[in-house]
Amino acid sequence: MLITDAPFLKPDLLEVVNLFEGAENLEIVHAAHAEGFYFFNRVTVNGRDYGYENEKSFSTPLENKRYFKRFAKLSVYKALSEYLGVSMPWGALTGIRPTKLAYTHGDGYEKFLTEEMLVSPKKVEVVKRIIGAQRGIYSTDTSNADFFVGIPFCPSRCAYCSFVSSEISKAKNLDLYVETLVREIEESKPIIKNLRSIYVGGGTPVSLPKPLLLRVLGAIGKNPGVEYTVEAGRPDCIDREVLSILKDFGVTRICVNPQTFNDVTLELLGRKHAASDVIEKFYLAKEFGFDINTDLIAGLTGENFGMFRYSLDKALSLRPENITVHTLCLKKGAKLKENTSRLSSGEVSEMVDYAFETLTAAGYEPYYLYRQKYMAGNLENTGYTLPGKACVYNIDIMEEIAQNVACGANAVSKAINENAETKIVRYGAPKDIKTYIEKIDEIIEEKRKLFL
Ligand code: SF4
């Protein structure tokens, strides 16, 4: 239970409390006040008192407000860390984009992360390497745009999935969805000034019947020289014909996602394929010359460190251009959530550390990362790349440095204007397919206004 005399900060302080397993059952009382450039916070945890004083100069009321919040969160973090005798890998950071935050501190980001936010040296090192790997790709030219197309259908639903993707065999209005999407794509293309990348995802686009897939790819068109990714996530949807269609339309990168190479876990996840199918389809895709990303998940239910190590080593033996290591995150909507207890932070952390050490030793670099709420061990998802193969789309999305023109149900467009008071403005299309189809005129109009 948390009581604070700054109720407007309660949601932020609760985010900090939730970093610590079981802390929601402690009695936490927080009080804050500021005098000039001095910020005072007092925290009592189950009757034990902690006091903190910070000095920070500011020149605008907005900055003042920002520091008031930052020191309040830090005080709750420090008090809980001291009371429970544990510290978190990302310290008091609760946001999902640590590298974006680091960029805002220029050359002083290491000092800020380490000394102010108490991020562990290991995670500061990851941030440092990511910033290094993004050199030459990171660009704040806001005429840049990425193009996202969402196909929210999959062959079956994975137990850990919290996307709005639904089983394609049960989808009503599939033809109508594709026709509506094609219209939105055609209306959206003129918005784009400087196209950096195309990403077709949202589910498993290659699960569409081939004539419908051809309609979507035909509407997107061929864009020579532009990075073009299609989620081909599930091996049960990959065959020679689909790969050759993707190749014809200029797709450069596909995702073939094992998540784990342990068959027993795949079955538990409802994936309806074996690990050997992933390997077979991976080599088939390689014949077509695609760059390939493979996703793995650390902390899957029923998996121990040895099982994760086996999957990571197996993925590495395929030598894909990109390997993304996710940490299990069970949000609302995931079937697995009901029966799952969190793995201990230590075990998941061991998996994530093993991935970092093994992949960097094998010539991969971490090149983007993001965090989510409810992540096992309060860790992160990290994309690794072979030199020169970093996915521009992932960097642009995570660092929020380019416009995102997004089409499809539940697709979120993002307009970025560095000079405006609100730098990032979003527009999210309805999640529900029927509503998306019905409201398409309104959606197109809202997007046009967003990017005016
Ligand atoms: S393939 Fe991806 S989007 Fe589809 S159900 Fe599985 S996790 Fe969800």
Describe the model.
- The chain is α/β, with parallel strands linked by helices.
- The protein folds into two domains: 1-86, 2-Layer Sandwich (Double Stranded RNA Binding Domain), CATH 3.30.160; 144-407, Aldolase class I (TIM Barrel), CATH 3.20.20.70.
- It has helices spanning 10-17, 61-84, 98-103, 109-116, 121-133, 174-188, 210-220, 240-248, 263-269, 275-287, 305-318, 345-361, 392-399, 433-438, 440-450; strands spanning 2-4, 28-35, 38-45, 48-55, 144-150, 153-154, 166-167, 194-201, 227-231, 253-255, 291-298, 322-327, 365-370, 381-385, 403-407, 412-416, 424-428.
- It has a nine-stranded mixed sheet, sandwiched between helices. A four-stranded mixed sheet has the order 1-2-3-4, with helices on one face. The protein has a two-stranded parallel ribbon with strand order 6-7.
- Strand 11, helix 11 (305-318) and strand 12 form a beta-alpha-beta unit.
- The model has no long low-confidence stretch (mean pLDDT 92).
- Bound molecules: iron/sulfur cluster (SF4).
Mean pLDDT: 92
CA radius of gyration is 23 Å
Number of domains: 2
CATH superfamily of the largest domain: Aldolase class I
| Chemical compounds bound to the protein | iron/sulfur cluster
**Could you give the order of strands across the largest sheet?**
13-14-12-11-10-9-8-5-15
Task: State the shape.
Answer: globular
- The oligomeric state of the chains shown is single chain
Please count the helical segments.
15
Distance between the termini: 46 Å
In CATH terms, what is the architecture of the largest domain? Answer: Alpha-Beta Barrel
Helix content: 25-40%
Q: Largest sheet at a glance?
A: 9 strands, mixed
